[in-house]
Model the fold of this input.
Amino acid sequence: MEQGKSATSHTRAVTHNHLGQTIHRLRTEQGLAAAELAARVGVRSGRLLELEAGAKQPQVALLQRLADALDVSVGALLPPPHTVGERVTWWRMVRGYSLLTFSEAVGMHAGAVRKIEVGTTVPYNRTLQRLADALDVTVADLVPTADMAVLHQVQNGERPRNRMELQTLARSVGRPVKDLLAMSVDADPFAVGTPGQQRDAQWFKTLWDRFQFPQGVHLRRIHYRLLSYALQLPDGQAYENTWAHYVFLNDAGRYARILGLVAPDAFDDRRHPPPHLHAAARTPPAPFYSVEYFPTWDLPHIDSDLAEQVALTLPAVQVAGYDYDPADQPYWLEVWIEKSTMDDVLLPLCQQLGVNLVTSVGMQSITNTVKLLQRVAAADKPTRIFYISDFDPAGEVMPTAVARQAEFWLAQYAPGADIKLTPLALTHAQVEAYQLPRIPVKDGDTRRGGFEERYGAGAVELDALEALHPGELAQLVTAALRPYLDHTLPARLARVAAFAHNRASVAWSSATETLAHERDAYEAQAHAILRRYEDRLQALDDDLQAELAPLGEALTYLGEAVDAAADALAVELPERPAPEPAVPAERAWLFASERDYLTQLEAYQARKRGTTSAVDDDVA
Done:
């Protein structure tokens, strides 16, 4: 039974990082230098540092040697397993199997076992028993036992994950379901799950499975593909090329994603341009040093001015791990805006600050929200999102719509993440302060009455702010972002890099001082020999090479001594500077991931009333 692959690469990265961090922690706790542990397990120091940085995955034999050297079990080095695949991998490593030898023990192809381990295939009962037998465990050891329904019980403070749990919450607090929604019953993802919506979602899933649409297919292409067959809607009507039936398809696909029948990122509406990503998630590098590689010293054949060509230089020490990247900033920052007409203002600003810019055409999609959460999970740091939209009924709802989708998918894609979202512009206060001209609200907008009752007649476009107050939008965005950026970090990294290089250079000079004297002596010998042969260069070339041969052999031994000195070199490098932002006072954010369901609901409802958030929290 094949599963989606969206989390596979992320899971492997998390596993590598956990393993490397665990090795580093145990090594430092035991007072072992990297070179000492590397010598114990039979690898070079550079290889060990790669393992600790998560850049490499050790083979099972090396993993066992590391566990022995650190006096722990192999299982203590590995991250706790959760899924069936992770548990199979964990037990395989603990039992000392390579993927190939384990596959042979199970009687399966290595590729099939690999699919189970990375989660692209879920094994059936018979296969589970074969895996368990080969690992000398029970099937229960391989199957997660956590009851997801219990984990998501609203009584434990978790958000409801389906309509039934929402109804349970409504009964427990004595309120109707509609009072526990931030959007309309049809639009709010937490309300999806009526019998009719389940029927429509299953209809969509059946077609999705039947036609095997490719990942990321455009919804319009699905629509036209269906038209080429004599298909019926759930109520028995023929599916036709009408706007009403296309809207039905869109809704059914949304229900299928929310109810977990189809992957949320399975298809896209393609209405929105791709985000402008100026920061990519990364783990800050661990500072390290290395001695540059140098080839064996070669003595020349006879030529003119041979003595000038003999320069026996020692290699220089290199220091790395202090480079700056925008992803090193303490917060993951994104600016979201409902239109691309402000790209000329926001794109260069966000690029300069290393902040992601996400534009759209109207309402954002589920796909973009899921991609946001995937970026947040990869970044693994506090996230702040600033939303910019027109001052109109649609613009007022947009930040809530994105926040609500993020809230719904949070547990699946970024559990435990610290995310906050707030509207930045245009607000009613800004419209009044800048005296921006109003235009009529679009005809037919059912939200017009409530909007104008709260704020007065008419709407305002973002373009009016930039046209009448050039540069003001950039100032608003800069002021909002500034508290979350450590502008001193690049300079501090550069200063510490210079300091670290100087410290390593001094240590290397001290470590090779005796070798340098030997090198100077050999160089002087070479010069003396070469000067004696200047007048007989061509004729005496063979004699010269014969006389230089012992010196070449001595230099070979000296080169090996230099290699040994490099392996034994120990430099205590300074710690890499961490970002040090001033902690901003965060009050009245529209969305904060640490709030419980009901507290977050109050913030949505306060915005809908056009008042300051009733939550008015100050969560850091």
